[in-house]
Amino acid sequence: MVTRDDVINIARLSKLYIAEEELDDMTKAMGDIVKFADTINNASEEGVEFDNINNLRNAFREDEIVPSYDRDEILKNANDIDEGHFLVRKRV
Amino acid sequence: MQYEMVAGFETHVELATNTKIFCSCTTQFGGDPNTHCCPICIGLPGVLPKLNREVVRFAIRAGLATNCHISNISKMDRKNYCYPDLPKAYQISQYDKPLCENGYIQLSNGRKIRLNRIHIEEDAGKLIHKRGDTYIDYNRGGVPLIEIVSEPDIRSVEEAKEYVERLQQIMRFIGVSDCRMQEGSMRCDVNVSVRPAGSDKLGTRTEIKNMNSITFIGRAMEYEFNRQVELIESGGEVEQQTLRYNDAENTTSPMRGKEDANDYRYFRDPDLVTIEVSDEEVDELRKTIPELPFEKAERYVSELGLSEKDAANIAKYRKIAEYFEAASDGVKNPKTAANFIIGQIFRRLETEDDKESFEIRTTAEQLKELIKLIDEGKIKNNLAKTTLEKMLDTGKPVTEFVSESDMADLDENALAELCKKAVESNPKAVEDFKKGKQKAVKSLVGFVMKESRGKADAAAAEALIIEIIG
Amino acid sequence: MAEGIITHLGGMLENKEISCTELTEKYISAIDSANGDLNAYVKVTPDEALAAAKTVDEKIAKGEKLDPLEGIPMTLKDNISTKGIETTCCSKILEGYKPIYDATVWSALKAKNAVLLGKTNMDEFAMGSSCETSYFGGAANPHDITRVAGGSSGGVASAVGGNIAAYGLGSDTGGSIRQPASFCGIVGLKPTYGAVSRFGLIAYASSFDQIGPVTTTVEDAAIVYDAISGYDKMDSTSQGRKGEPTVASLKNDIKGMKIGIADEYLDGVSDEIRTAIEKACSVYESLGAQIVRFKLPSLKYALPVYYILACAEASSNLGRYDGIRYGYRTSNYKDINEMVCKTRSEGFGAEVKRRILLGTYVLSAGYYDAYYKKAQNLRGSIVSAFKNAFGSCDVILAPTVPNTAFKKGSAISDPIQTYLTDICTVPVNIAGLPGISIPCGFDGEGMPIGMQLIGDTFCESTILNAAWQYENAVGAEVFRSSSYGVKL
Known about the structure:
The complex is a heterotrimer.
Chain A: H1 4-13, H2 23-38, E1 60-61, H3 71-75, E2 81-82, E3 85-88
Antiparallel strand pairs in A: 2-3
Helix pairs in contact in A: 1-2
Chain B: E1 3-14, E2 51-52, H1 53-65, E3 69-70, E4 73-74, E5 77-80, E6 90-93, E7 100-106, E8 112-122, E9 126-130, E10 133-137, E11 144-150, H2 157-173, E12 186-196, E13 206-211, H3 214-233, E14 242-246, E15 251-254, E16 267-268, E17 275-276, H4 279-287, H5 293-304, H6 308-315, H7 318-328, H8 334-347, H9 352-357, H10 364-375, H11 381-394, H12 404-407, H13 412-425, H14 427-434, H15 440-451, H16 458-469
Helix pairs in contact in B: 2-3, 5-6, 6-8, 7-8, 7-10, 13-15, 13-16, 14-15, 15-16
Chain C: H1 5-14, H2 20-38, E1 41-44, H3 46-61, E2 73-77, H4 104-111, E3 115-120, E4 140-141, E5 144-148, H5 154-161, E6 167-172, H6 178-184, E7 187-190, E8 210-215, H7 218-228, E9 258-262, H8 263-266, H9 271-286, E10 290-294, H10 302-317, H11 336-347, H12 350-363, H13 369-392, E11 395-399, H14 415-420, H15 426-431, E12 435-442, E13 448-455, H16 460-474
Parallel strand pairs in C: 2-3, 2-6, 9-10, 9-11
Antiparallel strand pairs in C: 1-3, 4-5, 6-8, 7-8, 7-12, 11-13, 12-13
């Protein structure tokens, strides 16, 4: 059972706004999806512990420096930059 | 009623690896903003992390040096929270299978502060707020950290300070971090609660975040202890919350309200594979753990005869301890080396950082040569002291400043000659002495020392002079 | 015998029947005339394509030998990072984003002078089965443009099916290569998890995502798979191809090969499709293979397991779109938190939001054990069920989709009904297995039907071999759509 409060809470954690007027619809939609997901709890079996898909171990990198990217490249896709920083300006 | 403080620490230590935890950018402190960055550490779409092998090794060594059990199997998890300094909106950390568990750090009063765990994770970037605008620099993002989590075993501000100092010394000794609190390479979150003395129940705790100085840790804990006691005494209740310490006012204040309570939604990071550490590898790493400062200090007292204070002062700094051990190895009296270090050498190393980096021109081998001359009675203390100053100034060996003739023993006749000469050439001092001014004899001895270029035995000279004057 | 377009074009270039520049121009003009109908491409890159073609022509002029993929005009799904070329995942939130690095697969193909025609349409962040959640609108099926091309790699399938690309790379998280390939009457291979590097693939669900080829024939799929598979040190989960290139064993005899049929795959499948699968069994028997029937009961939880785990991973993977470092940023906000929330709310479409919310829900305090953890354990069960199955057969034969391509607009209204159509494709992703969809007939309305061959991990050679033998037996040309694209 998914409540309006559940939806408000998960939207907050997900950094999404749901308008007041959409809240009932979203609660119902989430309720349906969760009900669908809930069918796994009908499974009688406990399941088998799952580690990672090919049971891989120890994929490491050596501690060797590779030159970093040019800052212009790093900042290239940003909406707003200043003095070599990513920037979020105050709005009024 | 008497109250007791109950405190525990979560300490973040930046590891001194060359590269970041999941990419090959440098971990160097500072640098122009966003110049130590690549697609991986700014979290561009499509990038994947690749774990730095050295991070795992450093963390295991930190665990071994703090008596932890090393897990043969561990994994990386995502801690999800959205904040502009965290480019992926999750921090890769370890949740339920940390690399190291169940260790402890012993304090000088014999109490063991238990460590719950040590795990590896990535650091976040840095936010700078200017006139309401937010500037973001990701140079620090992805720098490897270990988080050392203690049990609430600390009972006083003194214990807390010693805990942090010991932790700092251990990490520096094993070379996993420089632990510079002012640069943020070591930061502490402190949990504080109070309870009636003698009770074994835990009170509601508050957490003081991001402390970066031992002095402030002490003050903040003191303040928080008193605040909680006053609150309880006046019939109130301590609220579990996260606090910020304001050093200018020496107060704590809440950081965020309950409504912002986070739910980190930890789950295994599917981009990274299981970490498996064999017993053999742990044993190999165990061999790289040097004798730790407290062990050294104990040995300096019991085997080398140093005072506890001197032993602790030398053992505290890895480079100084190593220097002391090399300079005193095989000499008659190791205390001579300790005295030179704590006296003359420390005078040249004003700050903690100076002592930590320990850059002096005289090698341990050169100091040992000097000590050996004293041991053999070839030069006397006064000469040794002035010679050491010259050695420290120039980096040159003792033989540059002390000649063969300086080292030849002054025979009894020569000493008697010199004493006689002293009495004859200083009638004023002799006069004074005769009038009862005991101190006047010192200037006569000084004359003898100067004439003998420091070779004379000052005590013998003094006795002889008094005898001559009658 | 079914000659693939890659081999065909390669031959033409080598014999100097056409220059690479001419060939590329042909494709570019075909895109110009067909893309209005198909909406397969969201970005066309003629300059880059012609530059690569020029390099190839110079090599040909010098008499140098060409790699099979050299000079072949192709496309990439819009979630594969291409340095300097807009890569949006067909989401408003990545509007204008130009990667500063290449995905490993694209580096590998670029090194072979592949001719990139452009980036193709997809469901937003690969979340969908019809391509209709794309910010740019869905791609159309080249067999009937009133129908969907499928999803999420709908654009690649539409382009290859309509021959406005000789081949393409898609990504498959729950069927996103195989399902549109099935809908468009072409071949789609989802490799074993770890065979192809994911570095540079914009993540939907990291433990399910794999890049794979979308081609007109099995041989083409093998050629492309051999080129893109390989160990990549940038991807911790990468292992690369195991064994010889798959092209070498493509034409091996399959006498005695055991082909498994699991009843669960046929539940709820349309009669026409069931019949097509039974017919395929007969073809295999006539080739000397043996049909083995068995059960895979744990498949009944495959769909919810997939949606729980994939959405959980997605909710975390998509947290980074906050308007700070790249992509769309809202213009009105009070503080950073509001900027982030508004950017995300305005930048993501409805299906993406639904999946983020579901993922957040199943990971949140109090629900983790009942959903995420339980699903993870059932994933373990499904992995071992397949392991057991491969003890008694070499490949599993199954439908790719329970239905053929549906009309545009019919899926979007009911998300759960749409999820259910992924029933035959998601098990492969859950278990990390290789699966290929190849055409095996048409329904009564003339829409292609696809069948799926599933192998044990890293057994791409086996399924490609089985697929090639089938295709060779029935002839593949009949499935190609003739109304669009380059005429050869």
